[in-house]
Amino acid sequence: MNKPVSGFYQALTEHFPSIRLLTDPAKLLTFGTDASFYRLVPALVVLAESEWEVQLILAEAHKHKVPVTFRAAGTSLSGQAITDSVLVISNKGWMDFELMNGGEKITLQAGVIGARANKALAPMGRKIGPDPASINTCRIGGIAANNASGMCCGVAQNTYHTMDSIRIIMADGTLLDTGKPDSIESFRASHKHLLESIKNLTERVRSDQALVDKIRHKYRLKNTTGYSINALVDFEDPVDILAHLMVGSEGTLGFISSVTYNTVPDYHHKASAFFVFPDVATCCRAVTVLSHAPVSSVELIDFRGMKSGIGKPGLPHFINDDLPDSTCALLVETQADHDQALSHQIKDIHQLLIHFTVLEQVDFTRIQSEYEALWAIRKGLFPAVGAVREKGTTVIIEDVAFPINLLTEGVLKLQALFKKYRYSEALIFGHALEGNLHFVFTQSFESNEEVRRYQQFMDDVAQLVAVEFGGSLKAEHGTGRNMAPYVELEWGSDAFKIMKQIKHLFDEHNLLNPGVILNDDPEVHISNLKPMPVADDLIDKCIECGFCEPACPSKDLTLTPRKRIVLWREISRLRREGSTTHDQARLNELEKEYSWQGIDTCAACGLCSQYCPVDINTGELTLKLRAEQAGSSEMVAKWCADHFDGTQTAVRAGLIASDITQALIGSDSMVSISQGLRKVTGNRTPLWMDAMPKAASLESLGIVPE
């Protein structure tokens, strides 16, 4: 911990309980991981539970000149939720929500999981607009900070367009609630200079018609590259502009405490179909036609995407090895508020597709189990690559958008780049109506040659998408560190200067998530790459997405499944490669921590496997490690079994003694003493807690006192 962070930490100890200021190496390592392929280990992790605490954190950060990064769930894919400074976690304590106007509006704190918001809205036939693939895990703070969208969201239903108001804590600690007039008036008085600067910036942009045209073009597409400078042309009031600049700002302009959404209809009448076309050109022409149809979602899947599912249950029979490599498919969904309307919409879609050659199809089905099986094909594409990758490699999912009229050429040229750079397993899928394509491939970062191959590939992708096609390099995953070197290439120098001015206006000292979105290092996207060392066959497929975390019973006690895997991977690496005294000391420390955090407190219940996209049950690793521990303690176990009466008497006496001691000195002292003993004994003694059982009565044991 460097001197500024140390001073910052000491200041926080006066206000935070030590249990919410994390400094142990195991926690720092595991919190240094998000769903991206980058890793930075924070110097300090702070678990913040209120706005007041965030304001205090920002005040001390300003005083000590310490950079701060905010995180909700850590499902981000572009490296925007990691830091080597102070990481502030805002999930526990940020779970409140309020329904208004019969569900037409909902106010959600930063820690609310997206799917839980929709569960609250479901009885009213409503939902929030954003529908990212990680909605069962990601939280509102991250959804808003990344302007996440998804399969049915399109451009019109993201946070930027469905936000009613937002509650923000600025870099200087000022709280602004754009849903409360008194808060706005107070802010106008206290931040007059900031609002005037925003107004001047707006006038400057609007005086440049070429720039205005570029902004409007960019945001007809899905676009999360750079800041949401469309706010400068969409709104008049500087407060409205400020609020919408916060959306997609990835924690670099301020902290989003809560968002009030205008919700959208959640239709219960829906049907899905799957159409396979002979080639990419035919498929993309069908997309253009369907853009005028009553469809809620059109997902494109290339031939590699279809073939990645071969052998899985529920797959249509025609997806097999004989499927031509030229084929391309569309998964189409339509929704309506009543069954008759749905029938009319299906008929209209069929009429539009009647002139296209369709090689194979699964016609529209309204049966939930059947259309969910079709969507399982689409949702399984990312993990399908992750499940078959070589050990030690990383799964990368990129996210671009082409103008819809150039979609055919875009798909073909991406496929040509895969061939050029030898990404033979790469597949393409995406939200075709918006020209938004994801492509997934595996990458090793074990050698300089492999890193340079990735860098050259991304240089070519950037040139293709941003320059040649005028598209967006990040449609919905956020700029992060991943695309920071290419922001100016995509936007041009004038827009890039505007973005730098916005950052300076909001965060003069560059303390909020520095290096994310805007970064002068042309190689930041190939720096701090996350190692993926081989650890155990039970967990090597893990892509560290974090989808498992909400299901874990021990998530608030010690570690989640993702964090256990991160820690075990590092232990395995150090056992195999660690050669220095420092390596050995670190290994010993992490092994001690893993005994409690990784093994003893894992419920081994298997709930994580139900959420894992690659079917990993972290509990199986725990059971394996427990079995190995038990093997080394076989003699002790046998002795206890052979002397069970004495063991029972000794355990009962210990429980009586601890109960009496607790009554005399109090719970806090008992905790402190047990922590000290545990440290002295190398984690061989248990921690005492209020939930410790009391000794059973002799009568309950069947012993009658004489």
Describe this structure in words.
The chain has 706 residues and is of the alpha+beta class. It folds into four domains: 97-265, Uridine Diphospho-n-acetylenolpyruvylglucosamine Reductase, domain 3, CATH 3.30.465.10; 270-443, Vanillyl-alcohol Oxidase, Chain A, domain 3 (3-Layer(aba) Sandwich), CATH 3.40.462; 533-632, no CATH class; 637-701, no CATH class. It is 43% helix and 14% strand. The chain has 27 helices and 18 strands. A seven-stranded antiparallel β-sheet has the order 15-12-14-13-17-18-16, with helices on both faces. Strands 5-6-10-8-9 form a five-stranded antiparallel β-sheet, with helices on both faces. Strands 1-2-4-3 form a four-stranded mixed β-sheet, with helices on both faces. The mean pLDDT is 93.
What's the helix and strand layout?
Elements: H1 3-13, E1 21-22, H2 25-31, E2 44-47, H3 51-64, E3 68-71, E4 86-89, E5 97-100, E6 105-109, H4 114-121, E7 126-127, H5 140-145, H6 159-162, E8 163-170, E9 175-177, H7 181-190, H8 192-206, H9 209-218, H10 231-234, H11 238-246, E10 254-262, E11 264-265, E12 269-277, H12 280-290, E13 297-302, H13 303-307, E14 328-336, H14 339-353, E15 360-365, H15 368-379, H16 381-388, E16 394-401, H17 407-420, E17 427-431, E18 436-443, H18 448-468, H19 487-491, H20 493-506, H21 561-577, H22 581-600, H23 607-611, H24 618-632, H25 634-642, H26 644-665, H27 667-680
Parallel strand pairs: 2-4, 3-4
Antiparallel strand pairs: 1-2, 5-6, 6-10, 7-11, 8-9, 8-10, 12-14, 12-15, 13-14, 13-17, 16-18, 17-18
Helix pairs in contact: 1-3, 2-21, 8-11, 8-20, 12-17, 17-18, 21-22, 26-27
